[in-house]
């Protein structure tokens, strides 16, 4: 018979694996991070997943389906202690409940009906966009049309939306894009739901981290947090998706300062200088 303690232990192990041990990493490596919290949620029932798929006439990708059959969303957050009396919530990794994942309604619900005297009007976000495929490294195209399905995973104030994009309802491998609301530009984020989850963890859930991949970039106050806690994530020209991150226990390549630069010439009196000149 499974005891309550064993169930709790298995639950803890699941969330530790899901977050790739991020809480332990904070405790071991980054000072002043506090109030690390991971909410535990019940899994979705298979009937709930099937009902969601039927409502939207699509199939969830396999990894995303397994995720929601294990936990109905994910909420991980932490605070940073700026001073003894100033503790603020900073990091947040959030995936909504399945029922909260809805179609993007703005400019996507209706394509105006055409008639012999009226051209079809296509909303601005239904268009072709280019992106680099992270698997092949080649330029690919995002072709959206009236049958495309766009689901909102999260929103970044009024700046952008993180979207799960089905180019057609029959697609079995939807991709995740960032939709910039000011320009309606699409920026590719991840090939799969799992990759996007890992990217969220790699960026520590720092505010607006998705904007690292946008044309507008990070707000200045967010960039300061990156510089404070994860400056390596702001390295220029870093291909984050194709780079294999390997943790190696070795000393970083600090520049070696030669102590000789601090040596000064021995002082000599003016009288000594005169004697040398006379000789």
Structural class label: alpha+beta
Strand order of the largest sheet: 4-7-8-9-10
Largest sheet: 5 strands, antiparallel
Q: Give the fraction of residues assigned to helices.
A: 25-40%
Q: How many separate helices?
A: 7
H/E element sequence: HHEHHEEEEEEEEEHHH
Distance between the termini: 102 Å
**Mean pLDDT metric:** 76
**How many DSSP E strands?**
10
Q: What gyration radius follows from the Cα positions, in whole Å?
A: 27 Å
| Oligomeric category | single chain
Spatial shape: globular
Question: Which terms would index this structure?
Answer:
279 residues, alpha+beta, five-stranded antiparallel β-sheet, three-stranded antiparallel β-sheet, 10 strands, globular
Describe the structure concisely.
This protein has 279 residues and is α+β, with helices and mostly antiparallel strands. The chain contains seven helices and ten strands.
List the topology elements:
Elements: H1 4-18, H2 22-29, E1 33-38, H3 46-56, H4 62-70, E2 74-83, E3 86-95, E4 102-103, E5 128-132, E6 139-143, E7 149-156, E8 160-166, E9 175-180, E10 185-190, H5 193-202, H6 220-229, H7 270-278
Explain the overall architecture.
By secondary structure, the chain is α+β, with helices and mostly antiparallel strands. The protein has helices at 4-18, 22-29, 46-56, 62-70, 193-202, 220-229, 270-278, and strands spanning 33-38, 74-83, 86-95, 102-103, 128-132, 139-143, 149-156, 160-166, 175-180, 185-190. It is built from seven helices and ten strands. The strands form three sheets. It has a five-stranded antiparallel β-sheet with strand order 4-7-8-9-10.
């Amino acid at each position: 018979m499974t005891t309550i303690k064993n169930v709790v232990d298995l639950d803890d192990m699941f969330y530790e694996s899901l977050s790739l041990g991020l809480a332990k990493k904070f405790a071991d490596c980054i000072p002043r991070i506090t109030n690390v919290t991971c909410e535990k949620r019940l899994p979705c029932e298979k009937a709930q997943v099937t009902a969601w798929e039927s409502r939207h006439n699509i199939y969830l990708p396999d990894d995303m389906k397994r995720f929601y059959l294990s936990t109905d969303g994910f909420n991980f957050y932490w605070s940073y202690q700026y001073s003894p009396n100033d503790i603020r919530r900073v990091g947040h990794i959030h995936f909504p409940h399945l029922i909260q994942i809805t179609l993007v309604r703005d400019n996507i619900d209706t394509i105006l009906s055409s008639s012999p005297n009226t051209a079809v009007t296509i909303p601005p976000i239904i268009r072709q966009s280019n992106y680099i495929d992270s698997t092949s490294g080649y330029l690919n195209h995002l072709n959206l049309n009236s049958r495309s399905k766009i689901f909102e995973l999260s929103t970044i104030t009024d700046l952008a939306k993180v979207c799960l994009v089905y180019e057609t309802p029959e697609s079995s491998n939807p991709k995740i894009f960032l939709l910039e609301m000011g320009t309606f530009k699409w920026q590719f984020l991840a090939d799969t739901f799992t990759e996007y989850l890992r990217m969220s963890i790699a960026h520590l859930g720092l505010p607006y981290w998705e904007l690292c991949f946008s044309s507008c970039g990070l707000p200045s106050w967010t960039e300061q947090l990156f510089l404070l806690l994860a400056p390596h994530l702001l390295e220029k020209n870093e291909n984050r998706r194709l780079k294999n991150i390997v943790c190696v226990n070795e000393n970083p390549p600090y520049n070696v300062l030669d102590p000789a630069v601090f040596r000064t010439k021995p002082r000599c009196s003016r009288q000594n200088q005169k004697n040398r000149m006379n000789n």
